[in-house]
Amino acid sequence: MSAHDHTGTVDEGRRQALRLAGGGLAVAFLWSAGMGPAVAQMNPRRQPGDEAAAAADGNPPFAPNAFIRIDADGGVRLVMPSAEMGQSIYTGIAMMLAEELGVGLDQIKVEHSPPSDALYGQPLLGGGQITGGSTSTRGQWQALREAGAVAREMLVAAAAAQWHVDPESCSVARGVVTHVPSGRTLGFGAVAEAAGRLPQPASVKLKERKDFTLIGKPLRRIDSPDKVNGGTQFGIDVKVPGMKFAAVRTSPELAGTLGAVDDSKARTIPGVIEVIKLDDAVAVVGEHYWAAQQGLQALDIEWKPGVNAKLDTQTLVAALQETSRNGKALVGRKPKGEAPAGGKRVEAAFVSPMLAHAPMEPLNATVHVTPGRCEVWTGTQVPTRVVKEAARICGIPEQAVVLHNQYLGGGFGRRLETDQVEQAVAFARQVSYPLKVIWSREEDIRHDRVRPLYYDRISATLGDDGKPTSWQHRITSGTVLGRWLPAAMGKDGMDSDAIESAADLPYDMDNVLVEWAYHVMPPGLVVGWWRGVGPTHNLFIVESFIDELAHTAGKDPLEYRRSLMKPGSRALGVLNLAAEKIGWGGQPLPARVGRGIAVGSPFGSHVCAIVEAEVTPQGQVRLRRAVVAVDNGITINPSSVQAQMQGGLLFGLSAALYNGITLKNGAIEQSNFHDYRNLRINEVPQIDVYSVENDEAPGGIGEVGTAIAAPALANAIFAATGIRLRELPVSRTQLAESPDALKKVAGILTGKEDVA
Amino acid sequence: MKRFLIVVLLLIVIGVGAYFVLNRTDHDDGTAPVIAGAPANADPVARGEYLARAADCVACHTVPETGKPFAGGVAFKLPFGTIYSSNITADEETGIGRWSDDEFVRAVREGVRKDGKHLYPAFPYTSYTQLSRADVLAIKAYLFTLPKVRQPETPNDLGFPFNQRWAMGFWNAAFFRSQRFEPDASRSPEWNSGAYLAGALGHCAECHTPRNIGYGLKHGQELAGQELQGWRAYNITSDPVHGVGKWSDEALVQYLRTGYAQGHASANGPMGEAVAHSLQFLKPEDTAALVAWLRTVPAREGKDPIVVDPAPKAVVASSAMAPGGDDPSANVDGQRLFEGACASCHQWNGAGQQTPNAGLAGTRGVNDPGGANVTQAILQGVKMRIGQTDIYMPAFGHAYSDPEVAALANYVIHHFGGKEGTVTAEDVAKRRQL
Amino acid sequence: MVTLRVNGEDRQADVPPDMPLLWVLRDVVGLTGTKFGCGIAQCGACTVHLDGQPVRSCQLPVSAVGDRAITTIEGIGATPEGTKVQQAWLAVDVVQCGYCQSGQIMAAAALLARTPNPTDRDIDAAMSGNICRCGTYVRIREAIKQAATGQPNGLQVIVDGGAA
Ligand code: FES
Ligand code: FES
Questions:
Q1: How many domains does chain C have?
Q2: Which domains can be identified in chain B, with CATH numbers?
Q3: Burial of residue A203 (number of CB atoms within 10 Å: 0-12, 13-18, 19+)
Q4: Residue B161 pLDDT > 90, yes or no?
Q5: Percent of chain B at pLDDT above 70?
Q6: Closest CA to B147 of A276, A277, A262, A275
Q7: Architecture of the domain delimited by A235-306+363-446
Q8: Cα(C38) to centroid of ligand 1, in Å?
Q9: What is the span of the domain harbouring residue C49?
Q10: pTM for the whole thing?
Q11: Ligand 2 pocket, Cβ-based, cut-off 6 angstroms
């Protein structure tokens, strides 16, 4: 039973989408699956393009599909359709494939996939080779296990044929086929060649959950060993013979352009090779990145102001407010029936800031353009898009572009964009040697494609029992989906990501109106995906507001939520589990300490976070503890789920506490970790993660923790101080106990050693 | 009644007379002692460049990062309003391109512009008045070789009566003497060079000498230190406890050339600018002269004197990598912030790594319980280029709250100065406005 | 030309004296395990050891190294603390994207070398300069304790994927 069954009168197409994918970014993309010509997507059987792919991949004797290569020496190589950016998907994919194939994780080697929508298209994302939206496991769960099973059956058939026995009498474990009655064995390598000549089975039987030997176990990540000894090659580590390094500066004003550049000083710096330009950016090429950076610093650059020269955050927020009041709103969910008259009305408005991704590995790409050819090394979430853009810029066919995807030092949606790679290609076209272009952290933040700014107005009417008799929520924002995959927009122009986790509430209410007003962002201010995107924002609004309603109704926030949920729903399950684990309502908490609940169903999973925080008399927020309960259906790797929930929660808490991108004169004001802060280990509390076990199909995990973080924190701050946050990041000055508290000498009175 | 009128008239006459006497111009061209970096026989443009550096023209006449050199527009937030420096490139319309030699000399040494209006003494004509005409004209010659920048003046933001430039005549009458440098024959040539470098060119007193209520320099308190634009310019008299009397010559030289003297000081804020734009470029002989002169500045205690604790408990108990000696219950917030954003450069024993300028131990900043410069450094960071090296500390003011900055400042003062800091969030809020 | 002693080997590099050690290691010597994260000593990704002491190589001019021995993530496994830390990192399975982890491991190894049995506060003091955008902090804390004590300390036990 899915929580999405309570969504009221969502129109039928959208409702269908919600059921299939269980929410998240995927909802949006699923629409595209039904549109236009049939989209290519991954298939457990060998596809037309796979032959060439296998040939290019060492031409192994056994390559039954796009994912599995078995060499004559028995080596097992698995090709990863998704990109690894920390979410542990390589391990998850390897577990799904290996479970059915019959090898141990320690026996395999994983490989990055070459760019190909046809072979590695993500079904939930319209068939593109895309890693995002917490869809990888959800979208591949069936196909990859089947791919493993197909390969295993063929290997077994080959062995059985050699022995002249019934394949049914054979078993497989750790890459070895055993004829059970006789005890004879053959390794995969020995039968690979023969298996490669066999026809593929039309159907295969997948293991039942109880028979899993890998899936469901907390296995070590397959990429761990190299990541602890510096051996993993990220995009930024690529070495190509003859390669030079480029440092870049792009117009600080978004949409500004490059004017005159005086490079006389730069050219005198030892190691500087040349200075190259684009319309809106300049790069200095050096023998090493340091020379390039020094050269860049020595440039005297004149920037030409563009249309945003006067743009600042206040103007932008005001413009969104105007759109919210007077713009056209699309209905994402219609109320059912008439709301009863009377009752107590509660209203609120919220501002959610733009956010940067700041993946730990700054953006980079290494590009070598030769006549008629372009070779690219980079870590990307969208390999085929990179190929397409590189081909466009170089004016060559896509087949003439070679892309080597790499491990990603964090993605968070930033590497769903190709802007940085496009720029690198445009620069590399101007030189003959391979060029590694690295954005400094300052460039990375000042030219991020930020999570959208949102302005929300929300209201409800409470009946005599304190429960909402009506609920209205109007979201105003730019659109990520509309730019990034316009075909996936609803036919009325609705952006389903913008309303995700707002239209599909876990609460059993009838008179719910959810609307989205599209605000056209100024040119140059490009909004992008971010870890959690729509749900990070909507859950903050919805769960802050539900908390406020509980308070208005004089109810305990836990009881109030329970009273609004259908018995037996999965969301109620995680709510109850988290409450039980933290001991909700048990011991009274010290003064200015509060606990905040947030619950929701983003990305096809169900999650509840309870955060306990202390707010010092001077308004400093200390995280004391967090409990997360998650129901993501069948878990592939519990260790990964725990890690993703912890990491995701911290990503969201960092943003809620500290992060907001602001604009001044059309430029992003933040630049590096001193003004775009990240939680540090000494601010991080104990985070306990609990899972609900069941047989539901796997849900998404990578973004779930992030999406639920901010409301849990905001509600904890309310519980500690009585102050309801209407805006993020948390304005800590507003949280001081009294103006007098700020006159006291800092440090002396706030010191307490009670936080872990 | 008649008698009264006479008295009034007399007073006016005396007043006017006094005004003119007090505002009289020293018509002497003046002579300068030997400046090693600008020998009298050298090409005037080269001399001018060196002298302009020694006088640190660029710091006040160039907006950091974004501005064109010498095009002005730098804001000076003074207690009575904000004024902006002017364009001193040779642009005819917006700069000084049409100024005659006499007009330029008058502006530099008397504080009166080409149009006859008074300049505000944020422009240190009060010091530059000592310069020789030859030196002033050398500076002009140099400025006229630079690219002309068309950049109109930013109007000052001053309320009445401070926006009345004519009134500066009275200020000048009270606090300004037009007077060329007078060598002291009883002192060595080196000392005289130092006096000219410090007084006429470097205008040290403009920041380091306390001012009276009328914003005039308190000459009796010369170089005893004062606070200005939110930063404390420390006592640089030869007082052994509160000034620089105990510093070795080497330490003083090192400081003036690199902005850093181990165990004593690390320049940031306006002094960092002075080192970066001016002092580091002095010839070693000139630096030595400056030090020779500095040694003879009479010892004074100054206001809010700072006593450096040479071995605070926590510094002694800490290693480079690990803290020790802190009272575990005091200021956990401050310590948390320090260990996250600061310790990797400053280190727990204040030795400083990556760059020696990160050394905190023994500096007056961390020994000042009021924490003026510690707070400013946290809020604004440091960015200067010394020789070939960038000295950089991020500005934490944007993302760290007032209570956080206060807690951090107090922690730093406690840990590295062995004193209880008194910085409050409210103080930090005020400093942000400066 | 400078001579650097990196992981026990002498390396020559013809570089300007003010070039940060980070770029000498990555772009000239060719050891890319040490990472660039911020360039302003705020994230710790570039941490290496000089005579066992952690430094931010992004801000350290190569001329300031002198004859001190440089240890990078590629060489830390040869030290007793490095081995312990790397093993604990695997036992707890700390890494996510892994990009910050070179720096985390270098910081942790230096901590254990001077404080074999660190408290939570010791860990905070030593590790707070290292940012992890993926948020692996809970496991980092756990792994350091495991490395110190050799005992698992409460988190779920990671197993090798040997089955199937
Ligand atoms: S790259 Fe050196 S500390 Fe971030
Ligand atoms: S593991 Fe990704 S930044 Fe730390």
A1: 2
A2: 18-175 (no CATH), 189-294 (1.10.760), 313-432 (1.10.760.10)
A3: exposed
A4: no
A5: 99
A6: A262
A7: 2-Layer Sandwich (3.30)
A8: 5
A9: 2-76
A10: 0.94
A11: A 86, 360, 410; C 95-101, 132-134, 136
